[in-house]
Every structure is written in structure tokens, then in C-alpha cells.
Amino acid sequence: MNAASDELRHMDTRSAAQHLAAEVRRYRDRERLSMREFGSRAGLAVGTIQRLESGETPNLDTVIRAARVVRRPISTLLGEESGVLPPALRPLVDAAVHLAESDLALVIATASRLAEAQARATAAADPELERKRAAILDLPELDEDDRAMLRAAFEHEDELRAGGE
Question: What's this model's pTM, rounded to 2 decimal places?
Fold first, then answer.
């Protein structure tokens, strides 16, 4: 996907995903809900709930939908200490729990734009990294397909690093 799914994929995502998995399982146990019932309330497939509870890193839409059912702030569900949500994104993402379904896409798009801006700022703040990347892209043995693939990998890396601040 784009940065909307990637802004959760940095620094300590394993800890955050495990924290979320435990919170969802605890809620389902307390409310005596099956995965199917929880998924129905959240608007998520059973397979998505299975992956969520196994600790797999979810995308932002899944986290928001789960938080709506559990009725807890997203930053709390992810374990604020994990640092998985940059402080600037926490209020925006936490507010998404209370929005109408039609507004959810706007929140995800806004969070995505913030994550992309943060990725650009992070890359711009490291001139040594940019110098090394430029040297790699200038290698004569690379063709244009190789360069395009590397540029995409660099952009993805920037998105991953953006959330680590």
C-alpha cells in the first residue's frame, strides 16, 4: 500500500503489534466474542482478525476499525511507549475512532501525507545518506530499471524511518 499502511511500520512495530493483539484478544475474551463477531463489528474479515491477533503488523485502517470496537485510543492500544505512532500523528489517529465511516478515508489520507512529509524531512536531514544514495545510483553497471527499483526502495526506507522519530 502507501504510507498510510507504512507509517506503522518502523522502530518498534513488533512491540506495538503484540500490544494491539493482546488488547484485542482481551476485549474479545471479556465480551465473549468470536473472531467472526469481532470482525463483523469492526468491518474486518476473520482472516484480518487472525493476523491481527497473531501480532502481524496491521495497516492503519485495521487499527482504527479495531479501536472503534474496543473503544480505546489507538495510541493506548498500540502501547504509547512503543513509539510506533509519531507524536504528531497521535491526536489525528486517536480522533479517527470517533469519526463517521465516510470521514475515515480523509483521516487515513491526512495521516499518509503527514508520514510522507516526515519521510522527506528525515531524508533531507541526513546529507551523508543522500550522498551515498546518489553514488549508488551513479554506478555505471546499473541500468534504468535497476535505478528505478533502487529509488523505490529508498523512498520506502524513508517512509519506514520517518516514523522512528
Answer: 0.56
